[in-house]
Predict the structure.
Amino acid sequence: MANAIQPSRKEEIKPPVVHVGVVGWIRKNLFNNWLNSLLTVVTVFLLLKTVPPFVRWAFIDSVWNTPAQACRHATGACWSIIPHNYRFIIFGFFPYNLQWRPLLAMIMLFVLLFFSQNRKHWKKSLAYSWIAGLFIMGLLLKGGLFGLKSVESTQWGGLVLTLLLSVFGLTAAYPLGVVLALGRQSKMPAVKTLCIVYIEMIRGVPLISLLFMASIIFPLFLPEGVTINKIIRAQAAIILFTAAYIAEVVRGGLQAMAKGQYEAAESMGLNYYQTMRLIILPQALKIVIPPTVSILISAFKDTSLVVIIALYDLLKTTQTVLSDPRWLGYSREAYIFVAIIYFLGCFSMSNYSRKLEKELSRGD
Amino acid sequence: MKNTAPETVPFWLDPKKRAIFFQFITLCVVGLLAYYLISNTIHNLKRQNIATGLRFLDKESSFEIGESLISYSAASSYGRALIVGALNTLYVSSIGIVITVILGTFIGVARLSTNWLVSKLAAIFIEVFQDIPVLLQLFFWYAIFYETLPSPRQALHPLPGVFICNRGVAFAVPKADPAHGYMAIAFLAGCVIVYLIRRWAKKQRDKTGRLFPVFRVSLAILIGLPFITWLLAGAPTAMSTPKLVGFNFTGGKSFSPEFIALLLGLVLYTAAFVAEVVRAGIQSVSKGQTEAANSLGLRPGMVLNLVILPQALRVIIPPLTSQMLNLTKNSTLAVAIGYPDFVSVANTTINQTGQAIEGVALIMALYLIFSLLTSAIMNWYNKKAALVER
Amino acid sequence: MDKEPTAPAGQGLSQELIIEIIDMHKWFGDFHVLQGIDLSVHKQERIVICGPSGSGKSTLIRCINRLEEHQRGRIVVDGIELTSNIKNIEKIRTEVGMVFQHFNLFPHLSIIENLTLGPIWVRKTPKKEAEETAMYYLEKVHIAEQAKKYPGQLSGGQQQRVAIARSLCMNPKVMLFDEPTSALDPEMIKEVLDVMIELAQEGMTMIVVTHEMGFAKSVAHRVLFMDSGQIVEGNTPEEFFENPRHDRTKLFLSQILH
């Protein structure tokens, strides 16, 4: 139309300088009101008092790869304890020249984990790869077949043992936990009671009491002359412990299932086993993946408790190094190193869990 | 259509009868397994000449315990030793819980701060302390004590009356004085008075609509009454300060390195989880609630008290109590650094008497009681606080 | 209360009964939800059950495929007595199809997988044959192009049509509908009712609990009114709507026909 009002080309008006860019960000995030300004000042002051001394100790005055003697003369951190002892800390008593085997097993584990992250890969073939992978990892550790020299389980230690206890622990605990959760939901009073008693008892006691049980009492359960080595006993305790927590998490998933799903399956003539396997469990287990990863993270941290029953996991190998007279007194450095390993493991898992939770709640 | 009379259903086709049969089989299997384990155990115990039963509780323990809240010596019984251990567990757990709740709430709120620096630091704290095993944290703090801190002669002296060295932390406390007893009574009386004032103020508000400054008055009474009592008793200011005598400090109150390391490790670890719980609780109250309350004209204090907190607390309290229980269960790690908690003492008892089953059973029983009590209180709270829904 | 209304003669219905319910009672705890139900359903008959909420109409049809258990009386489906014998229950469930108010599709399976699940695992049909049957029924309910999609991607009306196809894949002799359109947005009700009408015209025996009186008028052989656990009255649609005999029926009709 001829008389239509034409919008004039206005100059683009930019916001005032103090509201954009670095200055703007600082204003908005650090000084936007008097309380925040005060907090910023106090926090910066505290940081200035604590961070530079730490940096000086950890990086500037520290030594990184010197023999033990040189450490005594250094004022900073003695990181040399790591390069000189890392093989023992990570592999424990595993024979020195065979350590490529647990190393290979760990690499396989990390590759499988990395690959499993992507939900697009969640197919039957992944499950088979895991089963094959776990079998190969066990073989690499134990040896005895295919020309691999046999290595006694008492020689497994360090990070290898920690990963072993966590991964096999969770893998075995998962089906047991699912069965317990189904049993707890059951209408049969005997089964339901047994499951409730088991779950509540295990969840109510500290892990250490179960480890004591494994260490001292399990041998009493066995007939005369039969022994099971301590690692397997501790593994059993970890499995029984983790299964109870998984059961509670899965129960949450089962309770979140709409009753209509059960009814639709029933009216089609599916029996209990088919209903659970095809309809209910695939949905319920998917809902509870984030809390399940959380249990895996806890299991990973909890394996450190086997120190107390004298199993040589990552923590105990570190302590063994520290009791060597040459390296006496460098606990801070050694513990920080181990803490970094644990932190990397747990942080990546919890990060993944958060990411997964976001994806699942979006309904992907 | 034929008119068939209903047939009797054979039991393997009747779901109810099948269920009974299945349960019977399950109980049999469990029973047989239990029988097998128990009979092996009895046999093995006999073979190794280990006593059974709880009579060992009366026997003399013949070991010392480093710290105890009640009197104890090597001549006391095992039973008394275990009580000492249980009291130590309660002691470190209660103090730990109080500090954790305060610290955790503070960090949780800081995580939500609009100040980027504060929020990020809180996030770093939470992430770091959650992802390192608590046992490792305990070992670290304990190592700080015996490796890094100086000997008593060169103890750190950050504040007047406070000394930190590798034998522990000592600080000045007021000398025992009868006035303290009176102050305690005054405080309790103050609590009762505050309670009565709150009830009266509520009645007043219902009747006349006028609001009484309950909070300020309560604060004044709870601080003022003990203070006045202190003045009246002669304002005793005598302090018992730690003094270096020989190789260690005497006087004042001191905490052992084991206790401090255990407390530090437990508190920092659990506070990181509590911070997340508090953060989630506060975030669970939708922004619309604050907006609606503000639009009604409620002042920020009232918005917090009447609208936000009740809803946030409902979400916070259940996981919070579970964290408190976790702290108590984690305190069992004291056995690894030598603090004489219940598990520690029980462990020594087991080593000396050989009665592992009774010992472990006692440990499990104690913590089961804690857990079940907490669950019961939790269920009661949930029922009371549950939102009424259709 | 009338004694069980007989099928009107001259409608071309076979006199063969497919469902017989004789003096059936059910209690929920102390609550007597079904009080002496007598009902005979002929092959190819279409029955609409209506009534106020709480009258027991959903419970009645849920008893037929044992989603609820009756405590007294007898239910016989296609000559098979419904007792606690699970072989009978399973057989009856394969003969009776059910469509739910909230569709109850399996969200983790695709549409075609939803349909082939029953035939593969219950009727032991080979996968290829099951898929052909599934595509046939998806065509019938006019939704074949969505076969590979997931329930969450479909509208309510589309999901309910899939649910109908899913039941049809099991080749049932009777179809039960529990308020099939009550959870749908108004603009989607017609597409589902159209499918149900087509189904009716092909001779399926149907028992439908619904408030859609238009549907009742067009395809039902009988309309039953239930109240407080009893079948109060039942008649052909014409008679039922023109000359309701009981006061309760009249009250109900006045409330829903406005």
Remarks:
- Chain A has a mean pLDDT of 86.
- The CA atoms of residues 129 and 135 of chain A lie 10 Å apart.
